[in-house]
Amino acid sequence: xxxxxxxxxxxxxxxxxxxxxxVEIAASDGSVASALVPSGASTGTAEACELRDGDAxxxxxxxxxxxxxxxxxxxxxxxTGLDPADQETIDRRLLELDGTANKSRLxxxxxxxxxxxxxxxxxxxxxxxxxxxxxxxxxxxxxxFGTGGKKAPRMPVPMTxxxxxxxxxxxxxxxxxxxxxxxxAADFPTGLEWIVRIYRxxxxxxxxAGYEGRLVGDEGGYGPRLEDHRQAAQFVVRAIEAAKLxxxxxxxxxxxxxSTHFFDGRHYRLSLPGAVPLSSAEMIxxxxxxxxxxxxxxIEDGLAEEDWFGWQELCQRLGDRVRLVGDDLFATNAERVxxxxxxxxxxxxxxxxxxxxxxxxxxxxxxxxxxxxxxxxVSARSGxxxxxxxxxxxxxxxAQHIKIGSVARSERLAKYNRLLRIAEEVGG
Length: 428
Ligand code: 2PG
Ligand code: MG
Known about the structure:
Layout: E1 4-13, E2 19-27, E3 32-36, H1 65-79, H2 87-98, H3 108-125, H4 130-145, E4 157-164, E5 177-181, H5 188-208, H6 229-242, E6 252-256, H7 280-293, E7 296-300, H8 308-318, E8 323-326, H9 334-343, E9 348-351, H10 353-356, H11 359-371, E10 375-379, H12 389-396, E11 401-405, H13 410-426
Parallel strand pairs: 4-11, 6-7, 7-8, 8-9, 9-10, 10-11
Antiparallel strand pairs: 1-2, 2-3, 4-5, 5-6
The structure holds 2-phosphoglyceric acid (2PG) and magnesium ion.
């Protein structure tokens, strides 16, 4: 058995040029590994705390030197000597040291850096690909919950961003992501080729119509100033057709509304000219109308993170035909997912490791959702790095979907390319 021998950390930059944490880890058998932590923009209030220095003289206060120091002085020494393959013990130790409900003492960015680096180290030390190690951890987590969960690694179907709005792009769209799901493709490489084809056709269609069809948002999706969300959906459907694919049969739409950011506690306030504030019931009508007129298979955060009753109603209206995915609503938090299952407030969960802060807690949330028959969508953040761990996480846990962003910008392509390599090994 190898043991963790050394843990180091440094401040590096993410895809928005903001500081983030990188952790390097070494084992007694000479194996080495590293992990980088991503960062969101449209964050939920239930997310674990990302520790920033707040020192305005450096990176406008966004530095992460305190988190780095917490890795080197507190978390790293505590992990030293532990077996990297025993993720649960490592993560429990990290949680104890932090001692807060939202990891605000040491920072979820510090904690996840160590947790994820340990998973990489275990895989390196036992010379298995990371997705196989994640599969092993997933089976163990399912065993602890007594839910079986016997699943072989499997390729996820991507949900790929085409048009960006909300907090991720400079345009005027309130909804954050208009995505394509190539669910009719026979395998992952074919689906990816379709996506690239649709993306290219969309760029051309936007340019021909006089909109910006080249500049992209944080996740690589186009960021045109369109009239409204309906026009965005229309453009994506036309791009699917222009790619010689059948909307609804080969590829469909997914939407991440990210509505928490335009909910004021009572109303949904769209910024469209002439828009009136919408009640929860009116927002639900808008979503039902969209899902009726367009081939929409998935709606994420259609309602805000505290609008539980609205979610229940939406689920009754659309739950049998559309994946209703909770992102801000659940924040990858097992307690919140449990609550959602009891209320029948959704039928899918978005999974972002840094929302909760450890590999073990992420897997437990996924196991709970899976046991309830929910779909699992592993997701990148809008601030990403070259770290491609989520590709392995999605395959190892046989998640139905992965949401990486668009097929532009290398922090996104690092994950798609990792999936292409994994597909050669697991097929599909
Ligand atoms: C989301 C994510 C990724 P962010 O809302 O699903 O698209 O965005 O990382 O900004 O929360
Ligand atoms: Mg989201």
